[in-house]
Amino acid sequence: MSSLSAPRCPVLDPTGASVHAEAAALRAEGPAVLVELPGPVRAWAITRHSVIQALTNDPRVSRDSRRHWPGLADVPEGWSLAALTMQESFFNFYGEEHRRSRRRVAPSFSPRQVERMRPRVQATADRLVKALAALPPGATADVRHALALPLTITVICDLFGVPEHMRAGIGSGIDGALNSSLDAEEAVAAHTALYDRLGELLRYKREHPADDLTSDLLLPAEPGAEPMSESELLGTLFLMIGAGHETTVNLITSAVQGLLTHPEYLARIHEGAIGWQDVIEETLRIEGPVMHMPMRSALEDIDLGEGVVIRKGDAITIGFAAAGRDPELHPHCPERFDPTRAGKEHLAFGHGPHFCLGAHLARLEAEIALTTLFRELPDLALAYPGDVPARLTSFMINGPVGLEVVPHPA
For this UniProt entry, which residues form the secretion signal (predicted)? Predict the structure, then answer.
């Protein structure tokens, strides 16, 4: 198998219109397949569960493109993936630098600390579901924008002390930066707007420090230590606020879609045959909120077998949402939503040193959103049964752009 100089390779659809079918085709072709990403940039796409698990825990693979990806020098100005690939945060750091930076925020997302957030998350969910319950019979609402998005953005912005007047701008800025279908000019404008808003947040917190994570990040990690650089502060805020709401929005929306499309599982929940965690883990398996996540780089040649060798310096993109649908892992109807299945293994939150810090919080928010929604609105139904909602325009983020529901069917 040839390397990044190969003359022909499939092009990943930047709109993400058919991410699962695309991933299935790549998985069938080999343990890694050379693809073209927006840019154009070539990278090895990994979509098999076992290979993702191996490479994300392999010290021969780095997320630090600044240090370990020679191809970075050749990407065009305004490259749409620059916001993620060039981000200075523990998301991209390697080795001890990664461990040092991650330790700054990890304690705030431990299971114990997350559980302490339950009352505040529940209060926000109660308020949002109450507004849905107040709609008249037959009225429709978009559950993504009426519940999933405001719940998750409120929780993460409360944690980071984002004042109310900045929240909408930062949220829309993150959405723009993750839109992989933008052209170069649009991508530059989206990234500039987002970092301007995050910079405004840092200036505000320097003037108005409080008991929140942004204020904590502005302080040295320990007495005598250097504070975070401005670029690392901006990258960490982008990562934590962006990943702290965008992925959970998709998890909640996809779970509601799965249950309303297959109402027989709601009956199984009421019977006590399955629990809400079964629904959440099955949703993570079949509709992982993150699909192709660039970029990683090989620090030396890596032989994957089947004639595939990733050469030193080659770029790699990981298809996390593809792992849960791998028929080698789930041979029985992996494309079917089935919370009763015994095994629900997935890699929706990643694997290895870069495993998602927000996994516990995402599960808590999804549990509270789902239990509150279906408890208060037992007759909730899809507004357009049989229709398939449009998908987000990104090959990186996986989820419906909206989900119209009827809280009180007429």
Answer: none
